[in-house]
Design goal:
With 259 residues, the protein is α+β, with helices and mostly antiparallel strands. The chain has five helices and 13 strands.
Length: 259
């Protein structure tokens, strides 16, 4: 699960709530697969456990854009088991937004706000997303999950799952009813500038050496749309040196040490 917490809307008036409360609780769940079954189908749609565990690292290259702002940039993602990550987004006229993990320290360097070591919910979300085999082990991060409804998402019938993490964050995942693949998430994503409500859409899935991956990710945040597109995926070619902590992050860690 690539995957953010959004306050649920107050959809029903008091009379509607009273009417629902008097109905059998099972009615809302009738005919829905369990969250466990949705996850199992998702893993098979990605290629199966054997395919997902045959690799220990990946190198993704592609592009980043913010169409409404006329921004086009570059995207490069290095990841490795168990929890190593380096993401570089190059934006002309701004610089490179970097995010990474050496397996212990999770950090980000943004030209707008400088270097930062992740803590709290931001750190927990980063761990969940950086886990190379995390899709196979949701129990590492998820306290509970349930399928709450069938709903339309980006023009596709989807199963909507309510997820509660072990750090008490609630968010939603949507799985394509036809393919079993993850269609999107609705989540409050923690950033260096605070939490932002984000809707993320995954699409254009393609096969890369037996593993099915989305090649387009659209994220809608605060009325803006950002698009990340994958052009190529290489497996098991990543030099571990790419995950070394940048000097700016080393300096922050040194400053945190007791004097």
């Amino acid at each position: 699960m690539f995957s953010t917490r959004i306050p649920r809307r107050r959809i029903f008036a008091m009379l509607s709530i009273a009417a629902l409360a008097s109905a059998p609780a099972a009615m809302a769940q009738e005919g829905l697969p369990s969250a466990k079954d949705v996850y199992a189908r998702y893993i098979e749609a990605l290629g199966g456990e054997a395919a997902l565990t045959q690799h220990t690292s990946s190198h993704i290259t592609g592009s980043f854009s913010a169409p409404a702002q006329g921004i086009d940039g570059t995207l490069e993602i290095f990841s490795s088991a168990p929890m190593l990550l380096r993401v570089n987004i190059g934006i002309p006229g701004i610089g490179t937004v970097e995010t990474g993990s050496d397996g212990t320290t999770f950090w980000t360097i943004n030209p707008a706000v400088g270097p930062m070591i992740m803590e709290g919910t931001m750190l927990e979300q980063a761990r969940q997303q950086a886990d190379f085999y995390g899709q196979l082990h949701p129990e590492r991060y998820v306290a509970s999950s349930e399928t709450v409804e069938r709903t339309d998402f980006e023009g596709k019938p989807c199963y909507k799952l309510r997820v509660v993490t072990k750090w008490d964050e609630e968010y939603f995942e949507l799985y394509d009813e036809a393919t079993g693949l993850l269609a999107g998430t609705i989540r409050t994503q923690e950033t260096p500038m605070g939490g932002v409500e984000a809707v993320t859409v995954y699409g254009d899935y393609r096969d890369f050496d037996g593993v099915t991956l989305p090649t387009q990710m659209i994220q809608r945040v605060m009325g803006m749309e950002q698009v990340m597109t994958t052009d190529s995926v290489e497996w098991d070619t990543v030099d571990p040196a790419v995950f070394a902590l940048p000097d700016q992050i080393k300096a922050l860690l040194e400053a945190q040490k007791p004097q």
